[in-house]
Amino acid sequence: MSLPPGFLDELKTRTSLSQVVGRKVMWDQRKSNQAKGDLWAPCPFHQEKSASFHVDDRKGYYYCFGCHAKGDALSFVRETENVGFMEAVEILAQEAGLPMPARDPRAQEKSDRMSELAKANEAALRFFRMQLKTGAASAARAYLAKRGLTEPVQDRFELGFAPDGWQGLWDHLKGQGIAPDLILEAGLARPSNKGREPYDTFRNRIIFPIRDPRGRAIAFGGRAMDPNDNAKYLNSPDSPLFDKGRTLYNHGPSREAAGKGQRLIVAEGYMDVIALSEAGFTAAVAPLGTAVTEHQLAHLWRISDEPIIALDGDKAGLNAAYRVIDLALPLLEAGKSLRFALMPEGKDPDDLLRADGPEAVAAVLDGALPMVKLLWKRETEGRVFDSPERKAALDKALRDKLKLIRDASLRGHYGQDIKDLRYDLFRGGRPDTRAGQGGGGRARGPWRPKGAPLPPQPVTKASLLVAAGDEAQTRLRESVILAAVLTCPALIEEFEGDLEAMTCSDPDHASLRDAFLRHAPKDAPSAREVAEAAIGPGGVESLLAARHVAVVPCIRRSGDTSMARMTVAEEFAKLEAARGLEAEIREAVEDFEALPEEHLTWRLGEAAETRNRALRAQQGEDADFDTGANGAHIDRDERKLLDAMIETIDFARKRR
């Protein structure tokens, strides 16, 4: 549906962002200034105790300084209610008392049809609930009691029973005035291929209603009471309301519980979710009879940055975990991952709860494995790597998996963890390669906790691999950027995304960046006030008077927006290039480590000779060496790259 011009502007004018957000958060009264529309609260999008979520009611925008969520009232409703754009518009328009424009007739017809299907499901749910109280459901009630599901629990999860008849629900719904085509389209009955009336989809089954995050009954799951039934669990067929690959059981309640600090647990089925919820693990969901899908992963990451996949402790459960890994690897982002809690052999979460109580489940969840550890387990468990060919096959399999990770930084961290695990497997622990420790061969240094970073190696102490010089240079570039936007605050909004992504190692830089993003001053005097409030007048003076800052043209000639824009853009580009170079060097180390010793030695000599010829050419001693377009000076960054390449190769060779 298209909206007429001006409708959204009118909607935003009538909508108070603070009221919309205020339904989901508790404002921090100490930090907030409601009279000025400046409001602060703990972020509703990620778990935190501090108030880093800022609402500017006058501008109609919110921003979180922790998870960087930002947007307006429409985006807030979309994210918190998990609805589409038009649904968010309808919600806000209703609250604002603004009539929605006339819908496209076909769109209106589709919406009306969805509402009718939901009503049919609600009528079916009432029927199933009533049937669970009858004598025909005595075996079902006994089974639920045996599984520890008391009557109050059954009521909370709206459990029901489908009687063992062919047309009990069909006849009931028709008697309620629900059209036959609606019953069929909702998946509550199926057409007969014998020329008879349609028959009920669910028969002689315990019924679990499935609701969407908005609370609508969209489908049902049924557990067979007959042990000889071909399908132990049966879900409603897909319908305009229900797509099982996009739906999670207990989605709405788990989202609310996770927002209050509960860890999000992904179990295998209905009974596990109910058992976990009743034991206090209220943020529990389950996919619906299928492996976890990409759409379900997206739902999970909207609820929690690190859901815990809790699977049965058997081969099938482990294989399910491996399938989730293959699905998740290409979708990973910094801060968005999965952990895996494997139950004891032969038990699911419900079994463990009944046998050993919530404490045992909590212990398993506390020990949940990060995804990289389970990936390693899959590729190595039960295998012997006693030959170069087998080791090479392992390396290839792991490389192929890591290539699926799109985020270069994340891929680098995975590669480092895999490298550490590989070393432990093949050599029984990572040695300290520092010289002078005494003893023969590679002596081990002082004890170091597992997983702690290696101390700098002598051959790389001054190189890009340690990056001490580069860290200082990064701080210099950050100070130039911050000084430039301080003197030309109009650039803050233009470079907002780059400022958000800038990782500041200097606390003053971080404070200044956050202050600019929080207040986004539009003129130099207010920018100066914001900066002084963040790092003090002395801190601002020190920043602007620093030798490497004071000489920058846009600082000397304050107010030249064009020059300041070019300066800031160039410094951000150099920061990005430096990060790319570090990533390339990390990958180069991995590549070089896989080469034979003789090739590394030869490659080191070649790189050293290239560097030496470049130096001679720079000094005019080698007329045959091409030094570039200027014919005299080799670029400093190229020299740096050559030096880094030599040290990288040497580092890889000496780690053998």
TrEMBL record:
<dbReference type="InterPro" id="IPR036977">
    <property type="entry name" value="DNA_primase_Znf_CHC2"/>
</dbReference>
<dbReference type="InterPro" id="IPR013264">
    <property type="entry name" value="DNAG_N"/>
</dbReference>
<keyword id="KW-0639">Primosome</keyword>
<dbReference type="InterPro" id="IPR006171">
    <property type="entry name" value="TOPRIM_dom"/>
</dbReference>
<dbReference type="InterPro" id="IPR037068">
    <property type="entry name" value="DNA_primase_core_N_sf"/>
</dbReference>
<dbReference type="Pfam" id="PF08275">
    <property type="entry name" value="DNAG_N"/>
</dbReference>
<keyword id="KW-0808">Transferase</keyword>
<dbReference type="Pfam" id="PF01807">
    <property type="entry name" value="Zn_ribbon_DnaG"/>
</dbReference>
<feature type="domain" description="Toprim">
    <location>
        <begin position="262"/>
        <end position="344"/>
    </location>
</feature>
<dbReference type="Pfam" id="PF13155">
    <property type="entry name" value="Toprim_2"/>
</dbReference>
<dbReference type="InterPro" id="IPR006295">
    <property type="entry name" value="DNA_primase_DnaG"/>
</dbReference>
<feature type="zinc finger region" description="CHC2-type">
    <location>
        <begin position="43"/>
        <end position="67"/>
    </location>
</feature>
<keyword id="KW-0479">Metal-binding</keyword>
<feature type="region of interest" description="Disordered">
    <location>
        <begin position="429"/>
        <end position="456"/>
    </location>
</feature>
<comment type="subunit">
    <text>Monomer. Interacts with DnaB.</text>
</comment>
<keyword id="KW-0238">DNA-binding</keyword>
<keyword id="KW-0804">Transcription</keyword>
<keyword id="KW-0862">Zinc</keyword>
<dbReference type="InterPro" id="IPR034151">
    <property type="entry name" value="TOPRIM_DnaG_bac"/>
</dbReference>
<dbReference type="InterPro" id="IPR050219">
    <property type="entry name" value="DnaG_primase"/>
</dbReference>
<keyword id="KW-0235">DNA replication</keyword>
<dbReference type="InterPro" id="IPR030846">
    <property type="entry name" value="DnaG_bac"/>
</dbReference>
<comment type="similarity">
    <text>Belongs to the DnaG primase family.</text>
</comment>
<keyword id="KW-0548">Nucleotidyltransferase</keyword>
<keyword id="KW-0240">DNA-directed RNA polymerase</keyword>
<protein>
    <recommendedName>
        <fullName>DNA primase</fullName>
        <ecNumber>2.7.7.101</ecNumber>
    </recommendedName>
</protein>
<keyword id="KW-0460">Magnesium</keyword>
<keyword id="KW-0863">Zinc-finger</keyword>
<dbReference type="InterPro" id="IPR002694">
    <property type="entry name" value="Znf_CHC2"/>
</dbReference>
<comment type="function">
    <text>RNA polymerase that catalyzes the synthesis of short RNA molecules used as primers for DNA polymerase during DNA replication.</text>
</comment>
